[in-house]
Amino acid sequence: MKILLIEDEPELQKSIEQYLEMEGNIVEISPDFSHAQQKISIYDYDCILVDITLPNGSGLDLLREIKLKKSKAGVIIISAKNSLDDKVNGLDLGADDYLPKPFHLSELNSRIKAVIRRKSFDGNLEISVNEIKILPHERRVLIHNQDVILTSKEYDLLLYFISNKNRVVSKSALAEHLWGDNSDRLDNFDFIYNHVKNLRKKLLEKECEDYLQTIYGIGYNFKTQE
Amino acid sequence: MKLLAKTSLYYLILSIPILILSGFICFHIITREVRESNNELLLNRNEVIENYLKEKDTISLKIITKSSEATIKKIAIINNFKIPVPIFSDTLIFDKKENELAENRLLSSVFKVGNANYSIKIWRSTLEYNELFRGIFTSFVVLLILLFVTYLVINFWISKTVWKPFYRTVSNLKKFRVIDNVIPCFENTSVTEFDELNRSLNVMMQKMIVDFNSQKKFTENASHEIQTPLAVIRSKIDLLIQSENLKENDVKLIIAIDDACSKIIRLNKSFLLLTKIENRQFNVTENVSFENTVDNSLVFFEEHIQANKIEVIKNIESDFCVLMNADLSLVLINNLLQNAIRHNINNGNIEIFIAKNKITISNLGLDNPIDSQLFERFHKDSTSQESLGLGLSIVKEIAEVSGLVFDYKFTAGKHDFILTKK
């Protein structure tokens, strides 16, 4: 996938680039408004990540240009302002998602995938990982073509793990993904442990390979390759 | 005590001794004047009698003694008799007309004519001092009452007219809220002091608003500026944990950093939320059904409620509907429920009561009421490590901007958090 990252903070550029490239994505970086303008007008991308506050311009204006170009790229606003107006304006202007800073890279990655899924096949794309098949529009999971009944949280976890497969996902990222940042973390960590335990059990029951590795103290890794 | 009542009281207290004193002075002056004029009169008459005695005008003397205001007696001559000086004295003499004893001024003297000595006594009825005293007393009491009534009337009028701008200023002050960013309009008055008061208040309010806004701006900017470095830290932690060969010690360090980082992030988000609420940035309103909101929130906290073995008792009389921002209503109920879960006891319960004008969320908890300071920022219960200490102040703030009243009650181990319509 080809991703354009429009962000002015160098260290954040590096982090996002590094994380996304792990999966073989091509990431191009625009540090300012005019540079981004050029990139958008010349090239096509699968996904564009836009910061709202940019040197010499606003990300919202870039959104207008993307829209004018009738680009097929999925657009995610990444903003430090976390303001309702920006969110509403951004989504009105055709952004597909809004992710306030600070975020977990795994969250960003799963949002990118969700947006691209929605864009390319109207959400009717199946996600396949070896014997696991997910039908996102139905929230259905099949293993060896057999249905697995998961709770809503277990499904969310599985999708999140698969979006970030072969990477370590921290418990705090999982907690934020499931509950936002609005409840007790210690409790949440226990719940995550239980959900993951149940999820793993259900997957193993259907003779799924045990992909989920527990990374001591930190989180989990859904490992599909050695 | 009202200013008017207070000044009137002082006036009354001070005027009583002054009036008593002046009553006494008045009484003394009158009696002295009366006595002096009587003395003079008696002396004159004495002289007349002495002249008659000298001239041996017995007829005139008889007339005088007949009118029974004088007695003239011849007294024996004693050797070496020294004629005494005339003496004035007060005496009671029976008044036949009034049929009572009356006060009289008496002059007794001895007069020598040739070899004969005459003792002369003449008198004259004077004022009755009791009556004089009573008269003065009565007139002064009447004076006091009249003065006091006049004073009250004048003061009443003054407070109605002269103090009017002052009361207007007070009512303006009562209405003033720094958060509204509006300085009340102080009208010009003809009283210098009030004008000065209004001017200084105006200056003070302007300064308050400027200070408040710059402080608010500062918090807002600080919170926003912190977001980007926090995003960098978080992303670096996410990359760091991808490393294959982390030692156990490294993991502990990373977890500690991640925990602290998450805490700052949550804190900062709460600040931004509070600032936004204060700035009235959630101005899109809709008719929010609290029954739905509570249900959504209960689903959200399902696991927390189960894990803490808390029983939820819902009692819905009718739906509580409020025209407010939907996002804020969810934050409001989430915060209240989270609070009720966090501070509950083992195997405790949460009661939710919803009526037309009221919603109450009660939980069992500590055996003493929470400090009202908990509604302020950063006051927290020491037992909860996870709490940021902002939950209830966010609830309070949301209630305030949404036209709700947030109340807290404690009865025998049960903590009630109540929202009512204003």
From TrEMBL, chain A:
Residues with PTM 4-aspartylphosphate: D51
GO molecular function (one): transcription cis-regulatory region binding
Protein name according to UniProt: DNA-binding response regulator, OmpR family, contains REC and winged-helix (WHTH) domain
Keyword field contains ATP-binding: no
Lineage: Bacteria, Pseudomonadati, Bacteroidota, Flavobacteriia, Flavobacteriales
Location of the Response regulatory domain: 2-116
Keywords: DNA-binding, Phosphoprotein, Transcription, Transcription regulation, Two-component regulatory system
Keyword check for Iron-sulfur: no
PANTHER family tied to this protein: REGULATOR OF RPOS (PTHR48111)
InterPro entries for the chain: CheY-like_superfamily, OmpR/PhoB-type_DNA-bd, Sig_transdc_resp-reg_receiver, WalR-like, WH-like_DNA-bd_sf
Automatic annotation (TrEMBL), chain B:
Presence of the UniProt keyword Disulfide bond in the record: no
Pfam families per the UniProt record, alphabetical: HATPase_c, HisKA
Cellular compartments per GO CC: plasma membrane
Full protein name: histidine kinase
Transmembrane segments: 9-30, 136-158
Domain Histidine kinase as annotated: residue spans: 221-414
Coiled coil: none
Domain of life: Bacteria
Keywords: Kinase, Membrane, Phosphoprotein, Transferase, Transmembrane, Transmembrane helix
Gene3D superfamilies reported for this sequence: 1.10.287.130, Histidine kinase-like ATPase, C-terminal domain
PROSITE patterns linked to this entry: HIS_KIN
InterPro entries: HATPase_C_sf, HATPase_dom, His_kinase_dom, HisK_dim/P_dom, HisK_dim/P_sf, TCS_sensor_his_kinase
Reactions mediated catalytically: ATP + protein L-histidine = ADP + protein N-phospho-L-histidine
Lineage: Bacteria, Pseudomonadati, Bacteroidota, Flavobacteriia, Flavobacteriales
EC number(s) per entry: 2.7.13.3
Residues of the signal peptide: none
GO molecular function term, any single one: phosphorelay sensor kinase activity
